[in-house]
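Changelog-adjacent note: as of this version, every example in the card shows the full chain rather than a window. The one below runs 27 residues end to end.
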Amino acid sequence: AVRRGSTVVGVQGKDCVVLAVEKRAIA
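Full-length structure tokens:
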């Protein structure tokens, strides 16, 4: 369960970073 949670958080974190970078690039 812990590993799954960490994986989910890591994936979401990467998505958030990608979105942030895209927003900065667009802005």
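Structural remarks: The mean pLDDT is 77.
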